[in-house]
Specification:
Layout (H helix, E strand, L loop, with lengths): L3 H20 L6 H13 L3 E4 L6 H11 L4 E5 L7 H4 E6 L4 E6 L6 E5 L6 H4 L3 H6 L1 E4 L2 E4 L5 E6 L12 H4 L4 E4 L5 H11 L12 H11 L6 H15 L13 E3 L3 H17 L7 H5 L2 H5 L4 E2 L1 H5 L4 H11 L9 H6 L1
Parallel strand pairs: 1-8, 1-9, 2-5, 5-8
Antiparallel strand pairs: 3-4, 6-7, 10-11
């Protein structure tokens, strides 16, 4: 077994090499890239919202090349049917039997591009595979390869010809990340790279190594006080009056589910792991609150009328609920 210091150094080096390769192609988007890595280490899924042309597809494709994994992209359109995603049974006239044709979800990294362009029945076809990592076709279950990550992109909901995602599916995404336009300096570098010679990325890790990193990430210590902080944050979105936030009650139709609490804890673990620590600190969790919770809140019409969005509600919640004192490392906790 590798000693902890050697394990931490190995992890940091591997993460650095992966990010270096991706950044040879993708310019800027540091927050987005970090969240993609958090989702991969946490074995979670990612929903990305932004206008076209912000390197969302390029980022996932480059990551797949860097990790030497299988990558597939599905372009969601209004005429798509569930079988186009998960697969179907096809009659074979040669032997008179039905063969199973597996769909594009059987991959390591799946990009569901413009997911809100397809109707709800197609979006819901991803429900089982995102949660159970398997697909059921004609009563038979088929497991997808491991590790498995879905990254879905969507245009802002105001764009014409889009469908809102079902709440049950939205909740299965660990995080929703908002991608903004690059700065002038970044856009100059983007134009320089795209119009220059093509960059070939090297595969610096394998999917087996990623699976090992996921297992190691689960061993990162999270102090009970930090878990309690996550529970309070999520509970405050359901019963704000119990936490001295009665003014938010008219704005929230439904709060976040327990998956949000789990996402905060797993995300804090992954960030601590990426930063070379064997224990999570409060700042590891606090920076993830908006990304983990924003898509899980169902706001009332009153909130929309007052011009409040989920991020504004979450800002009030985080300002009101204090962070715990610096969490203890596992050995310090054992001493107490």
């Amino acid at each position: 077994m590798i000693p902890h210091t050697a394990q931490a150094e190995h992890t940091a080096n591997l993460m650095e090499r992966i990010l270096y390769e991706v950044k040879r192609v993708v310019v800027g988007q540091d927050h987005f890239l970090e969240r993609v890595m958090v989702a991969m280490l946490s074995n979670g899924h990612l929903l990305v919202e932004g206008v076209p042309g912000l390197a969302k597809t390029l980022t996932v494709r480059t990551l797949a090349d860097t990790l030497h994994g299988h990558f597939k992209r599905i372009q969601f359109t209004p005429d798509l049917v569930p079988a186009d995603l998960v697969g179907t049974r096809i009659y074979n006239p040669r032997n008179g039997e039905f063969d199973t044709a597996l769909g594009p979800v059987f991959t390591n990294l799946l990009l569901a591009d413009e997911i809100n362009r397809a109707p709800a029945k197609v979006q819901s076809a991803l429900l089982e595979v995102m949660q159970e990592r398997q697909v059921t076709i004609a009563g038979t279950s088929h497991a997808v390869p491991r590790p498995f990550l879905v990254m879905a992109t969507q245009n802002p909901i105001e764009t014409e010809g889009t469908y809102p995602l079902p709440e049950a599916q939205v909740d299965r995404f660990m995080m929703k990340v908002l991608v903004d336009y690059p700065s002038e300096e970044e856009e100059f570098v983007i134009a320089e790279r795209v119009t220059g010679p093509a960059v070939q990325v090297a595969a610096v890790a394998s999917m087996e190594q990623l699976a090992e990193l996921q297992q190691a990430c689960r061993k990162v210590y999270v102090d009970p006080s930090l878990m309690q902080y996550a529970v309070k944050l999520v509970s405050a979105t359901r019963r704000p009056a119990d936490y001295g936030l009665a003014e938010l009650t008219p704005y929230l139709s439904y709060g976040a589910s327990p998956r949000a609490t789990i996402g905060l804890i797993e995300g804090a673990r992954a960030l601590a792991f990426m930063r070379g620590r064997s224990y999570a600190l409060p700042e590891d969790m606090s920076g993830l609150v908006h990304d983990v919770l924003r898509h899980r809140l169902v706001l009332s019409y009153e909130a929309l009328a007052d011009g409040l969005d989920a991020d504004a509600v979450l800002r009030r919640v985080t300002e009101h609920i204090p962070l715990p004192e610096k969490a203890l490392a596992p050995h310090e906790h054992a001493r107490h």
